[in-house]
Amino acid sequence: MTLIQLPSTRTAPRSQEAPVAGTPALTVSGLSKSYSGRTVLDGVGFSLARGELVAFLGANGSGKSTTLKCVMGLSTPEAGSINLLGTDLSTLGGQALVAARSKAAMVFQKIHLVPRRTALENVCAGGLSRLNGAGSLSPLFFPQSLKEEAMAALDRVGLADRAHERAGRLSGGQQQRVAVARALCQRASVLLADEPVSALDPHAAEQVMALLAELAHTENLAVAAVLHQPDLALRHADRAIGLLRGRIVFDGEIATMTHAVQNELYSPDRAAA
To answer: Is residue 15 part of a domain?
Structure first.
């Protein structure tokens, strides 16, 4: 794949020298997790590189969302290692772990925005961890530099003209793009999206997936998205990882994900129907 680098409108680059596309950003090895005696993840291992969008596919309960939650620290694995941007997270604790994990951002199916706040104020929240004192207490005290960076992030997702609208008045697709802009303002290098389009109409879903692919390719982000729609993955993803009963049974270029592979991945859903 040829990656085309476009100029970015963001005012604060995440680093002085952009890492090369294809550089591993996230490496997971031997991840295991169970709930109430039921194995959810069984030795899951994969890598996620800069400049690619990877779709996680599989039936309900196959472990897709749990995998991302373990990476983000929202669920604790019983075994395995997580290496984020060259740092083994298992060796860290306290503020050092918080700082390391801030290099990854997560976008959820349920969009976690403050409805009464404007889109701009919600995006500014992505940069609050970098502020000290009164600057982090209220939008009234957000520094101008943060507002400019947030506005650039909104412009990047095509919503600069909605910056001063309350988030609760935006459509579902627009709110999801605000959530992505917030991740950009966080200056994350890894973007994990857990079912980001499952609650959206088809047109909005296409827009959000196209945005995630564009951010991977032009901003050199490492992006992973849990999806229930293989057709969306085929149109937008570079690679697919398929889970079946907690194990990875497919990991390859999207063009190699045949109907036979899809049938295997979703066989538990058909059996339960």
So the answer is: no
Answer whether 127's CB lies under 8 Å from 150's CB.
yes
Residue 14: pLDDT above 60?
Answer: no
Q: What CATH number corresponds to the domain at position 150? A: 3.40.50.300
Amino acid at 31: L
103 phi/psi in degrees, rounded to 5: -80, -5
Report the share of the chain in percent with pLDDT over 70.
Answer: 87
Q: Are residues 39 and 147 in the same domain?
A: no
Q: Closest Cα to residue 220, out of 85, 21, 54?
A: 21
Confidence category of residue 270, pLDDT binned at 50, 70, 90: low
Structural domain range at position 225 = 23-103+193-272
**Pick from 168, 216, 247, 267: nearest CA to 26:** 216
For the question of whether the overall pTM of this predicted structure is more than 0.90, the answer is no
Alpha helices in the chain (DSSP H): 64-72, 94-101, 119-124, 144-156, 172-185, 202-219, 230-236, 259-265, 267-272
Residue with tokens 């997971």: 28
First vs last C-alpha separation in the chain: 38
Query: Residues 69, 45: one domain?
Result: yes
- The count of other CB atoms within 10 Å of the CB of residue 158 is 13
Q: How many domains does the chain have?
A: 2
Place of tokens 């982090």: 136
